[in-house]
Amino acid sequence: MKQKLESITQPDDAFPTYDEAIWTTVGYIPKGKVATYGYIAALAGFPRTARAVGRALSKLPDNTTIPWFRVINAKGVISFPIGSEKYGCQKQKLLNENIVLYNGKINLKRYHWEI
DNA sequence: GCGTTGACGGCGG
DNA sequence: CCCGCCGCCAACG
């Protein structure tokens, strides 16, 4: 993985596959910060593919080191059914980084990652 | 090729 | 602020 930050903004076939591009980009989200699906898609070089980002993340193995839990939707909400195991898992990982939810929502003004 | 399916986004009501 | 509708787009059957 020799890709550097600059390649995030200028992807041009910098990655072999769409999934690789997404996973790598997600890996750049700093601890304590979050990013929306659409934002990740744009940085990876595939604007308007927010939905596909979720699909790509769903392919990750359970033991992955990629911080998939730092990706939330544009409303600042975890994109899993409230109360589901996945939901609780993601919420816990975020809390571990001091990212708090207020009424189920994360304050994007405060926690969203900006390049 | 075509219709369906999502860990989505934005806008209007 | 909370829906709901519609647009988007990569997989999958």
TrEMBL record:
Residues 19-96 form the Methylated-DNA-[protein]-cysteine S-methyltransferase DNA binding domain. Signal peptide: none annotated. GO terms for biological process: DNA repair. Keywords: DNA damage. CDD domains: ATase. It comes from the Bacteria. GO terms for molecular function: catalytic activity. InterPro entries: ATL_DNA_repair (IPR052520), MethylDNA_cys_MeTrfase_DNA-bd (IPR014048), MethylDNA_cys_MeTrfase_DNAb (IPR036217), WH-like_DNA-bd_sf (IPR036388). This is O(6)-alkylguanine repair protein YbaZ.
